[in-house]
């Protein structure tokens, strides 16, 4: 029997961006995982009961702190606001390049049969 292999070109999922000072003299290059960023944003939205509209200072300050915790060094509320909006478009782009969305612990969305299927 011949074993078939599958190949795929995967995105690293990193959002690469540059942060420059208002005067434009200082520039830092950074990267953050798109999925981790999106989940971070959603956790903050849930924690603050955000339902849309204009975010407040407390919300954006907390978002910045959460982003620092996932590796966005020196994140300010202004950077957090911009990354928050970027996260959604980055995830949409990743979804276009993926045939399935990981929803099961195995990362597969196929329906499991037999002993390994959870009874519901």
Mean pLDDT: 84
Number of helices: 3
Strand/helix succession: EEHHH
Spans of 5+ residues with little confidence (pLDDT < 50)?
A: 106-112
Cα-based radius of gyration, to the nearest Å: 19 Å
Strand order of the largest sheet: 1-2
Q: Which oligomeric form is depicted?
A: single chain
Query: Could you say which overall geometry the principal axes of the C-alpha atoms support?
Result: globular
* Helix share, percent: 40-55%
Q: The biggest beta sheet, please?
A: 2 strands, antiparallel
Terminal residue distance: 37 Å
Strand content range: 5-15%
Structural class: alpha+beta
Query: Would you count the extended β strands for me?
Result: 2
Keywords:
2 strands; 12% strand; globular; alpha+beta; 120 residues
Description of the structure:
A hairpin with a 6-residue loop joins strand 1 and strand 2. The chain has 3 helices and 2 strands. It has a domain of 66 residues. By secondary structure, it is α+β, with helices and mostly antiparallel strands. About 6% of the residues have low confidence. Strands 1-2 form a two-stranded antiparallel ribbon.
Topology:
Elements: E1 14-20, E2 27-33, H1 34-48, H2 57-69, H3 77-96
Antiparallel strand pairs: 1-2
Helix pairs in contact: 1-2, 1-3, 2-3
What is this entry, summarized?
Helix content is 40%, strand content 12%.
């Amino acid at each position: 029997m011949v074993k078939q292999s599958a190949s795929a070109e995967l995105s690293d999922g990193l959002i690469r961006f540059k942060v420059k000072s208002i005067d434009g003299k200082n520039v830092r290059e950074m990267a953050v995982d798109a999925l981790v960023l999106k989940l971070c944003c959603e956790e903050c939205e849930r924690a603050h009961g955000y339902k849309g509209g204009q975010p407040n200072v407390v919300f954006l300050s907390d978002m910045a702190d959460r982003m620092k915790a996932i590796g966005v060094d020196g994140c300010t509320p202004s950077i957090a606001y911009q990354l928050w909006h970027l996260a959604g478009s980055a995830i949409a782009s990743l979804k276009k390049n993926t045939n399935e969305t990981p929803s099961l612990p195995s990362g597969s969305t196929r329906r499991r049969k037999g002993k390994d299927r959870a009874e519901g």
